[in-house]
C-alpha cells in the first residue's frame, strides 16, 4: 500500500520549465511515476520531456482531471502564489521542494491548506518515495534503485540527505522501506511527524517507523505524545541530531532553519527524554538503526 | 537575524509604536538628552539588566562617569561599543507582548503576560493568530489593543520571526510605551525587505576574515549553497560537511569521538566545483590543522564528482601542501568516478587521502578522522 505516493499517484509539476523542475519531471517518469502535466505561467503550450505545459494549475486540471499530486519547484519569491493556486484547486497532496521560503508565506499556506482540506509536505522537502512504486520530488536522484528497496519500514526525516542515508543503511541491512518522506527542516512544515505517523498507522505495509529529528521546535515531542496516547502503535526508532549546535550561542544559524534554539524549548534533551518515555528506541548514530528495529 | 535594540525600535517607530526619546552614542559622542536617563548597552545577548548592561542615571553630574564605565564593560562576552541613551519613562504597569511562530499551532502566535525578565516563565500565554485575517486584538486588554495591532504590523511588514516588547509599559498618564525591542528577522525574506542591516555575529566577537570570505562564495550565484553558513571554532580538525541535516549529524559524531572541529560549514544543493574550491582554500587556510574531514551522506542530487574535484583544486592551490590526514566520506551521483580520480590525484600529489564510500557508515569515519589526526593507534 505505502502512504502518500502509490500506483494512483498522478503528478503535476509547477515550475516544470525550470532547470530543477524539468530534471525532476524526467527522474519521476524514469522511476515509473505518472507525470501528467506541468505549469509555468507564460509558457503554456510548450512541452517538457513530452509533458504538456500549461499557464495555470486550473487549466492543467481541466485537461488532466486525474492529477492528485502537485510538486512545486519554483523560486522562493514565487512559491506562495504557486502553493495558493494548488491549494485553491484542491490538489490533495502538494509537495514543496523549494527552499528558503519566508516563514510568513508557509504559515499562510498551511492555514489555507487546512481550510481546503489538502495536505502540504514541505517546504524544503526532498520528496516522497514509495520504493518500487513511485516517487515525487528529487529524493533518490536519478537512480533511487541503488539506495531504496521496497519493504516494511516507514521513514520520516527532517533532512532530505539523511532520508536517503538512513534508507541506504536500512537497505544494506536487508530492510526495505514502505514510504520515505523528507518533511523538510524549516520551522513550520506542512506535514509533521505526527501527521505522517497517523498515515503509517493505517498502512498495512508499514510495520515500524524510523524518525530522523533535529533540535528546535516541538515536532519530536508531539510525536512522543501521540505514541504515549496510544494513537500510534507500531515500533519506532528515532535519531535526533544537533547536540553540537547547542554548544554554540543561542540563535546561531546552521543546518536547517528549524534547527535553532531560543531559550530551553526544543533542546536535544527534551526531545530524547520525551521520545524515550514514550518507548521509542534512540539510535546514537544512524548505523545503529537496523539493530534497534530488530 | 537578531537585531540590536535600537534597530528594533526604529522598526517599531515606523509602525507608530511609542518609544522613549533616545540617542545612539559611541564612545566619544556628545549627549543631547538630560537626566533622568537610562543607558543601555547595545549588545545582542539577552538579560542585559542582570549583567550590568543597563544603567540608570538620576543626576546629570553622574552621566559622564556612568557612561564611560559602561563603555569599558563586557556584557555576556560582548564588548560595549554603542549605548542607547534614553529618557526615563515613569512605569505604571508592565507587560510582555510578542508575536512569533509556533511549531505547536504551525502558525503565528501572540504571547502576552506580566513583564520583566523571564516573562515567558511567569505564565505568559500564547494564542494562535490567523495568518490570513491578521491580528484583531483578541486576548489583549482594551488599553493595549492598538499597540498590539501595531506590533503585528511590524511582525508582518518586516517579515519577522519574533517581534517582542518586554516590557510594554503603561505610564501613569495611561500612555503605552515599548521600553525594549527584541526583533528577529526571517533571513529567507531578505529579498523583499527594503531595510538592510549589517551582518552580525552572535559569538560575541567580530566576524573572522574566513567567515566574511566564506559568505561571499554564494553571492550572485544561486547554484547550490556553499559557505553561506561558516563559523570558525577553536579546534584543529578542518571540516567540509555536506547537507543541512548530515552536517550537524557529523559534527555531533566528531565531538562524541573527542575531535575538536576548527570550523563548521556546510554545502548543499548542487554547487559548481568553483564554489567548493573557494571554500576549501578558506577552510584549509588556517594554521596548525591536524586533519581535514570532507564528509557527507548519500546525496540525492549533489554531483559528487564535481564537488570533490572542486575540493581537490582547492587543495592544490593552498600555499603550503597539507601533510595532515584527509578523510573523505561521501556517496551519491558520480561517486565512483570521483573516488577513482581522487586516488590517482592523491598518489600523484602526495596527499594523505583516506577515502570511504557509501559502504562505510558516515559517522564511523569520525573515529577514523580523530584517530588519524591525533595519532591514536587503537
Write a structural description.
The complex is a heterodimer of chains A (294) and B (378). Chain A is α/β, with parallel strands linked by helices and 294 residues long. Chain A has one domain: 3-Layer(aba) Sandwich (Rossmann fold). In chain A, 31% of the residues lie in helices and 22% in strands. Chain A is built from nine helices and 14 strands. In chain A, the strands form two sheets. Chain A has a seven-stranded mixed β-sheet, sandwiched between helices. A seven-stranded mixed β-sheet of chain A has the order 9-8-11-10-12-13-14, with helices on both faces. In chain A, helix 1 links the parallel strand 1 (10-14) and strand 2. Chain A is globular and about 55 Å long. By secondary structure, chain B is of the alpha+beta class. Chain B has three domains: 21-87, ATP-grasp fold, A domain (Dna Ligase, domain 1), CATH 3.30.1490; 91-192, 2-Layer Sandwich (D-amino Acid Aminotransferase, Chain A, domain 1); 209-374, Rossmann fold. Chain B contains nine helices and 18 strands. In chain B, the strands form four sheets. In chain B, strands 7, 8, 9, 10, 11 and 12 form a six-stranded antiparallel β-sheet that branches. Chain B has a six-stranded mixed β-sheet with strand order 13-15-14-16-17-18, with helices on both faces. In chain B, a hairpin with a 4-residue loop joins strand 10 (160-171) and strand 11 (176-178). The radius of gyration of chain B is 26 Å and the shape is elongated. At the A-B interface, helix 4 and helix 5 of A face helix 5, strand 15 and strand 16 of B.
Amino acid at each position: 500500500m505505502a502512504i502518500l505516493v502509490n500506483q494512483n499517484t498522478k503528478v503535476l509539476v509547477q515550475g516544470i520549465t525550470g532547470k530543477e523542475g524539468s530534471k525532476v519531471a524526467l527522474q519521476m517518469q524514469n522511476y515509473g511515476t505518472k507525470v501528467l502535466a506541468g505549469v509555468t505561467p507564460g509558457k503554456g503550450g510548450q512541452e517538457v520531456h513530452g509533458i504538456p505545459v500549461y499557464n495555470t494549475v486550473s487549466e492543467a486540471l481541466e485537461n488532466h482531471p486525474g492529477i492528485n499530486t502537485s510538486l512545486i519547484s519554483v523560486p522562493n519569491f514565487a512559491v506562495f502564489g504557486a502553493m495558493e493556486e494548488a491549494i485553491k484547486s484542491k490538489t490533495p497532496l502538494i509537495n514543496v521542494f523549494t527552499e528558503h521560503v519566508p516563514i510568513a508565506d508557509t504559515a499562510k499556506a498551511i492555514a489555507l491548506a487546512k481550510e481546503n482540506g489538502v495536505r502540504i509536505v514541505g517546504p524544503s522537502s526532498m520528496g516522497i518515495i514509495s520504493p518500487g512504486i513511485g516517487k515525487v520530488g528529487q529524493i533518490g536522484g536519478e537512480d533511487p534503485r541503488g539506495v531504496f528497496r521496497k519493504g516494511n519500514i516507514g521513514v520520516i526525516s527532517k533532512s532530505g540527505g539523511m532520508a536517503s542515508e538512513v534508507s541506504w543503511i536500512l537497505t544494506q541491512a536487508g530492510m526495505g522501506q514502505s514510504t520515505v518522506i523528507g518533511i523538510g527542516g524549516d520551522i513550520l512544515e506542512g506535514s509533521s511527524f505526527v501527521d505522517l505517523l497517523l498515515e503509517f498507522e493505517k498502512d498495512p505495509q508499514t510495520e515500524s517507523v524510523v524518525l530522523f529529528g533535529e533540535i528546535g521546535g516541538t515536532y519530536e515531542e508531539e510525536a512522543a505524545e501521540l505514541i504515549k496516547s496510544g494513537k500510534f502503535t507500531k515500533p519506532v526508532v528515532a535519531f535526533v541530531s544537533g547536540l553540537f549546535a547547542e554548544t554554540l550561542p543561542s540563535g546561531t544559524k546552521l543546518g536547517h532553519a528549524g534547527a535553532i534554539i531560543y531559550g530551553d524549548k526544543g533542546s536535544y534533551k527534551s526531545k530524547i527524554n520525551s521520545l524515550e518515555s514514550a518507548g521509542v528506541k534512540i539510535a546514537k548514530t544512524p548505523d545503529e538503526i537496523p539493530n534497534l528495529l530488530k | 537575524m537578531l537585531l540590536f535594540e535600537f534597530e528594533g525600535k526604529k522598526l517599531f517607530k515606523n509602525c507608530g509604536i511609542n518609544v522613549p526619546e533616545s540617542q545612539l552614542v559611541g564612545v566619544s559622542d556628545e549627549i543631547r538628552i538630560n537626566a533622568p536617563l537610562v543607558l543601555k548597552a547595545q549588545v545582542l545577548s539577552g538579560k542585559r539588566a542582570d549583567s550590568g548592561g543597563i544603567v540608570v542615571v538620576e543626576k546629570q553630574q553622574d552621566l559622564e562617569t556612568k557612561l564611560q564605565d559602561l563603555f569599558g564593560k563586557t556584557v555576556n562576552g560582548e564588548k560595549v561599543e554603542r549605548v542607547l541613551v534614553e529618557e526615563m519613562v515613569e512605569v505604571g504597569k508592565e507587560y510582555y507582548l510578542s508575536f512569533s511562530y509556533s511549531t505547536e499551532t504551525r502558525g503565528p502566535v501572540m504571547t502576552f503576560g506580566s513583564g520583566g525578565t523571564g516573562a515567558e516563565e511567569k505564565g505568559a500565554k500564547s494564542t494562535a493568530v490567523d495568518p490570513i485575517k491578521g491580528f484583531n486584538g483578541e486576548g489583549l486588554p482594551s488599553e493595549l489593543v492598538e499597540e498590539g495591532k501595531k506590533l503585528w504590523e511590524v511582525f508582518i511588514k518586516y517579515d519577522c520571526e519574533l517581534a517582542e516588547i518586554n516590557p510594554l509599559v503603561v505610564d501613569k498618564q495611561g500612555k503605552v510605551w515599548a521600553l525594549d525591542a527584541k526583533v528577529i528577522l526571517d533571513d529567507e525574506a531578505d529579498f523583499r525587505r527594503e531595510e538592510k542591516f549589517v551582518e552580525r555575529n552572535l559569538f560575541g566577537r567580530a566576524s573572522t576574515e574566513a567567515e566574511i570570505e566564506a559568505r561571499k562564495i554564494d553571492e550572485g550565484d544561486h547554484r547550490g549553497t556553499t559557505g553561506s553558513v561558516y563559523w570558525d571554532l577553536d579546534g584543529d580538525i578542518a571540516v567540509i560537511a555536506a547537507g543541512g541535516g548530515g552536517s550537524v549529524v557529523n559534527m555531533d559524531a566528531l565531538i562524541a569521538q573527542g575531535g575538536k572541529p576548527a570550523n563548521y560549514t556546510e554545502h548543499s544543493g548542487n554547487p559548481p566545483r568553483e564554489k567548493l574550491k573557494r571554500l576549501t582554500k578558506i577552510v584549509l587556510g588556517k594554521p596548525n590543522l591536524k586533519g581535514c574531514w570532507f564528509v557527507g551522506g548519500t546525496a540525492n542530487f549533489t554531483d559528487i564528482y564535481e564537488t570533490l574535484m572542486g575540493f581537490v583544486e582547492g587543495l592544490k592551490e593552498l600555499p603550503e601542501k597539507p601533510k595532515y590526514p584527509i578523510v573523505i566520506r561521501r556517496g551519491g551521483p558520480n561517486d565512483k568516478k570521483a573516488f577513482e580520480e581522487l586516488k590517482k590525484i592523491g598518489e600523484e600529489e602526495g596527499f594523505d587521502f583516506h577515502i570511504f564510500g557509501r559502504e562505510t557508515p558516515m559517522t564511523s569515519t569520525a573515529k577514523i578522522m580523530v584517530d588519524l589526526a591525533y595519532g591514536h593507534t587503537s
